[in-house]
Amino acid sequence: MQTPLTPPQRAPYSAIVDRPPLVLPEGKRLAVWVIVNVEHWHHAGAMPRAVLPPPMGQPLLPDVPNWAWHEYGMRVGFWRFVDVLRERGIVPTLAINGSVCRQYPRIAAAAHELGWEFMGHGYLQGPMHKVEDQRAAIRDTIEAIREATGRAPRGWESPGLTETGATLDWLAEAGIEYVADWVLDDQPTYLRTAHGPVTSVPYTVEINDVVISAVQQQRSDELFVRGKLQFDRLYRDSAASARVMAISVHPYLTGVPHRIAALESLCDYIAGHDGAVFHTGEQIHDWFATQRRPES
Fold first, then answer.
1. How high is the mean pLDDT in each 10-residue block of the chain (296 residues)?
2. Biggest alpha carbon–alpha carbon distance for the chain
3. Do 163 and 128 form a contact (C-beta atoms < 8 A)?
């Protein structure tokens, strides 16, 4: 394989003020996508993150308290998301590990029945840099989602947004059309790969409960407080050219009793604005394709 492109080569610099305006249909101006991240934390390995530090600083396996912290999200928190989004008529994008489709088929089946978009999120939760055969993991993820839904995913979010130099080329090779790893803009953009352009749909590390709740350990209502500020500014900016806002949540974080109201309040606040529309990742990808063509 030829030397992979560098990130600046894949995403050449573009100032938002220099671009022709983007226009959403039906008078809308801000597309908001909700991403529900559902992950498989294998009990035999170190947990991807922890709520409790190991006793005396010595990691222990199995890590029952931190595995169970995450497992709560699969047993309870996910179903709170189902209720919140269904009651509001919001169809989210489900970023799902391929292994979830097989280890937690009840979750995959429920999301499919509700018409949620499935987006690849790696096969097992862990950085792409540690995956021995990325091509196989990508292929296995796509196949697991195809088995669960009847069709292959069009989008991809790498675990932890991690990519090696060649990941994007392998995703394009496998037929992935858009990615959420490149958090560099308020509008979609095209990324260059060895197999043609892939769309970067704006994702977020700011309106993201991993950062807010697990890393920064903010108050339980911070998703709403920060999300409202984010929305208000993007809504103002979108008067000149359409924007995209992402809200990223995980069942074991926002799905707990003391945080779920923040998601409810944020969704209700956004829904109160006529110029905002809830879209899935693939809807944003398809709309952008009508607005811009990739450079040859």
1. 90 97 98 98 92 88 96 98 98 98 97 98 92 95 98 97 96 98 98 97 98 97 98 98 98 98 98 98 98 84
2. 59
3. yes
Coil, strand or helix: which one is 111?
A: helix
Indicate the burial class of 274 (C-beta count within 10 angstroms; 0-12, 13-18, 19 or more): exposed
Alpha-carbon span 138 to 135, nearest angstrom = 5
Cβ(198)–Cβ(191) under 8 Å?
A: yes
How buried is 18 (Cβ within 10 angstroms: 0-12 exposed, 13-18 middle, 19+ buried)?
Answer: exposed
Element (H, E) at 34: strand 30-38
Rounded CA-CA distance 52/41 in Å is 16
Cβ within 8 Å of residue 194, ≥6 positions away: 1, 2, 4, 5, 169, 172, 173
H-type alpha helices, the chain: 7-10, 64-72, 78-87, 98-103, 105-113, 134-149, 167-173, 209, 222-237, 260-271, 281-291
Distance (Å, whole) CA 165 – CA 193:
11
C-beta atoms surrounding 124 within 10 Å: 22
Angstrom distance (rounded) from CA 198 to CA 204: 18
Neighbours of 171 (CB within 10 A): 28
Query: 23-42+60-291: which CATH topology?
Result: TIM Barrel (3.20.20)
Preceding amide of 62 cis, omega within 30:
yes
Q: Hey, where are the domains in the chain?
A: 23-42+60-291
In sequence order, the 6+-apart residues with CB closer than 8 A to the CB of 27 are 274, 275
